[in-house]
């Protein structure tokens, strides 16, 4: 099948896209929804907005055309099952994928959903209306096993947002997820922490993986604090300047 990769720059969307390629599908484009200009992080139930400044570099690294839309609507339909409502942000995704399908003749969409039925149901609604197959290889996988697989398959990812007890902006932002793998397991054992961040505990950005023809280098970034809570401070990394460099074997 000809696949559009829904990507955020994070590990889940890119690992699922890699699995599509490994399963013999043809990758034809990547697509992303970003906040309006001047907004780093959007309060969205559906879309990761942190790291959107790096998505263009991800597309170049993968070597695929990027189709990027703006999140113009809000979360309106909040039930787990989704019925299309013109005012809901899911319809921004419908508009974007409608355009991409026409441009590249795609027949399927790659989705990095692991645990959220809310998100998966909405992407499936869009795909059903556009007659696109929804490819979700990560769905309901064991998170510890899945993150280990990502690391073992040379996915180099960093924390770009933290929002949970046990994670702090100073200690974790910009650092490799691999370095803290055992720590994430301990947090899971102590607090029920989602090892892949499925509860919003953290967001990631992939700087290198088998899909990339070149690796992404972050030249300049900025830590921004959203909430300075004493127990679970929330902060994110703004990617101000990046470049691609050749891989060295």
Automatic annotation (TrEMBL):
Pathway: Protein modification; peptidyl-diphthamide biosynthesis. The keyword ATP-binding applies. It catalyses: diphthine-[translation elongation factor 2] + NH4(+) + ATP = diphthamide-[translation elongation factor 2] + AMP + diphosphate + H(+). Keywords: ATP-binding, Ligase, Nucleotide-binding. GO terms for molecular function: ATP binding; diphthine-ammonia ligase activity. Its EC number is 6.3.1.14. Belongs to the Diphthine--ammonia ligase family. Amidase that catalyzes the last step of diphthamide biosynthesis using ammonium and ATP. This is Diphthine--ammonia ligase. The lineage of its organism: Eukaryota, Metazoa, Ecdysozoa, Nematoda, Enoplea.
